[in-house]
Amino acid sequence: MAEELFIEMECAQFTKTGQAACGDDVRFLTVEKENRYIAALSDGLGSGVKAHVLSNMTTTMALRFLQSNLPTLESVEIIMDSLPVCEVRKISYATFSLFDFALGGRAKILEMGNPGYIHLRGTEEVKPASEHKVVSAHWPDRGVRECEAELKAGDRIILCSDGVTQAGMGERSDYKLGWRRSGVLKYARERISADPEISARDLSAAIAAESVSITYGICRDDVTCLVIFLRQPRVMRILSGPPFRPENDAEFARQANLGEDHVVVCGGTTANILERELGVSVKISLADMRSAGALPPVGKMTGVGLATEGILTLGRVLSALEEGRPIDREPRAAREILSRMMRHDRIEFVIGTKVNECHQDPNIPQDLELRRSVVRRMASVLEKDYRKIVKLNFY
Amino acid sequence: MDKVTVEICCGTACYLLGAARLMELEANLPEELKGKVEFEAKACLGMCNDDRLGG
Fold it and tell me: Do both A188 and A105 map to the same domain?
């Protein structure tokens, strides 16, 4: 049961209007050997580049210290002692919220100066299992709240910077004290009751966007919302390439049985194999042709999934992932695959390894990479930078 | 006269060797052919590996 659980950690962020750099920082770390998931959110004093440096230093140190199990007091002292002191305010400052969870155990949450975390089971708020203050002799006025939370499948943890909870403060008479933690809690509950399966990605985006809408789209402070969601993994499959041995075509085609929203077939020959084996057909409408952009058009296999061209499309998806390019500006085929990847937790590649000889034709004006190597690189970037579980199956 | 259906291959090799331009045909059809031709996109027509077609 425990190993079936997926810990989705996602954040949404807006930079204070007019600033070049975001003064909040979020970092994630998965320690696979220990089945451990760590997240750090820090809000640097002020805004802009200086705040950016403070918060980045804080999250970087925090991840290292948590991972190496340094005692809380010592970690916190090192962080506070090493931040540069602000010339104007004569304090060194970056608030933080840290989340540390090993599957099967309790989650530890450390907070200094940030709005208190929210723990939701469905729409019910869950109180911490234990709570106490840790105070450093160097910084007596800056206590750290250390909580333990009992996490179950389906639970969510929400962490925010004060840009979220203070939205509207001093600006709107109906938000005299800002949106507040209670406002975030109420809004999160509404979203969850409207969509009980809402992903961490969508919920964090909704909360951040709602807080910015309170101030009419102008960010008075950096806004960051981080959501952690323990759920059954959402699985998608990408089938690409003809099997090396044609006698495996039938078994290969049977892998496309996850439902239309969870399957992508990349490659013309691959689509032909599925058409033959499953008795379906690819439909590419004229509208699909017109909206294709810089890649071949996207088709649909009714009852099976999406159908795209193969190696050019996969190559484009890979480069977008590696460079972190915004999804919505990609050509349609890459955009459709990328947005599906972001909506799923576990991505299974079912790859036929037969090489299409005509791809080696010297008349083709572009180098075509081997499918297998593109997919391997994609797997590694999805695991490392996007925290996905990736499985590779070769046929 | 019946409409003529033109199938355009969207496979990798065809796309790179000119099919990408063929997709624009529909929008650039000469007046006298308008209404007489239909376009359909296909996943792969198998021509890239047909020796008779120089594949």
Answer: yes
Angle at A261 between CA A255 and CA A263, to 5 degrees: 30
Q: Select the residue of A271, A299, A361 nearest B13 (Cβ to Cβ).
A: A361
In a shared domain, residues A201 and A249: no
What is the domain range of residue B49?
4-53
| CATH number of the domain encompassing residue A195 | 3.60.40.10
CA A385 to chain B, closest CA, distance in angstroms equals 28
Q: Considering the entire predicted model, what is its pTM? A: 0.82
Give the span between the Cα atoms of A136 and A139, in whole angstroms: 5
- Residues A259, A163: one domain? no
Residue A331 sits at the chain B interface (C-beta within 8 Å): no
When divided into structural domains, chain B yields a total of: 1
Residue B12 touches partner A, C-beta closer than 8 Å: yes
Give the Cβ contact number of residue A81 at 10 Å.
11
Contact B20 A296 (CB under 8 A): yes
Residue A62 clears pLDDT 60, i.e. is over it: yes
Q: How many CB pairs under 8 A join A and B?
A: 78
Residue A387, domain extent: 235-394
Residue ending a domain, among A231, A254, A282, is A231
Asked if A362 reaches chain B (Cβ–Cβ under 8 Å), the answer is no
pLDDT single digits (tens) A298-311: 999 999 999 999 99
Closest to A321 measured CA to CA, from A260, A366, A266, A387: A387
A116 and A146 both lie in a single domain: yes
Whole-number Å distance between alpha carbons of A143 and A116? 13
| Phi, psi of A286, rounded to the nearest 5 degrees | -60, -35
* N-to-C CA span, chain B: 33
The C-alpha of A284 sits at a distance from chain B's nearest C-alpha, in angstroms, of 6
Q: In terms of pLDDT, which residue wins out, A65 or A138?
A: A65
Claim to verify: residue A69 and residue A83 sit in the same structural domain:
yes
The two three-digit tokens of residue A228, written as one number: 């952690």
The overall average pLDDT reported for chain B is 85
Token pair recorded at residue A317: 């998806």
Of how many residues is chain A composed?
Answer: 395
SS3 B49: helix
- ipTM score of complex: 0.84
Residues A278 and A360 in one domain: yes
